[in-house]
């Protein structure tokens, strides 16, 4: 399975630690493919944009008014992560380690 995120993202690190067979695609180096991005937008809508991130807070108001896919293409670090593509083809968003 693959997921889209950042190598320095805490949630992405936790996911890799718990699922070492997953492959990380770092969105700061390789953009999310258009088909997957559009599928994620259709499924998650505006929630795909992390409006609590430092990247979002640094954007000007004109950029913030753009469509989510445009914002993510221009500033990939603003995407909530990890965006996980399961073997079934289903997309999931986010990861939290379960407490034991």
In short:
The protein has one domain: Glutaredoxin (3-Layer(aba) Sandwich), CATH 3.40.30.
Structure explained in plain terms:
The chain is α+β, with helices and mostly antiparallel strands and 100 residues long. It has a single domain (2-93), classed as Glutaredoxin (3-Layer(aba) Sandwich). It contains five helices and four strands. A four-stranded mixed sheet has the order 2-1-3-4, covered by helices on one side. A hairpin with a 5-residue loop joins strand 3 (83-85) and strand 4 (91-93). The longest helix is centred in the middle third of the chain and has 11 residues, at 34-44. The mean pLDDT is 93.
Mean pLDDT: 93
The separation of the N and C termini measures: 24 Å
- Spans of at least 5 consecutive residues whose pLDDT stays below 50 are none
What's the β-strand tally?
4
CATH superfamily: Glutaredoxin
Secondary structure layout:
Blueprint: E1 2-5, H1 10-18, E2 23-26, H2 34-44, H3 54-58, H4 61-64, H5 68-74, E3 83-85, E4 91-93
Parallel strand pairs: 1-2
Antiparallel strand pairs: 1-3, 3-4
Looking at this protein, list some descriptive labels.
Glutaredoxin; alpha+beta; 36% helix; globular; 100 residues; four-stranded mixed β-sheet
């Amino acid at each position: 399975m693959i997921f889209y995120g950042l190598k320095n993202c805490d949630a992405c690190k936790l996911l890799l630690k718990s699922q070492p067979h997953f492959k990380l695609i770092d969105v700061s180096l390789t953009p999310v493919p258009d088909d997957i991005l559009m599928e994620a937008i259709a499924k998650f809508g505006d929630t795909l944009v992390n409006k609590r991130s430092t990247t979002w807070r640094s954007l000007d108001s004109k950029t913030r008014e753009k469509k989510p896919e445009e914002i993510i293409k221009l500033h990939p670090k603003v995407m909530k992560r990890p965006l996980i593509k399961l073997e079934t083809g289903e997309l999931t968003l986010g990861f939290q380690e379960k407490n034991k």
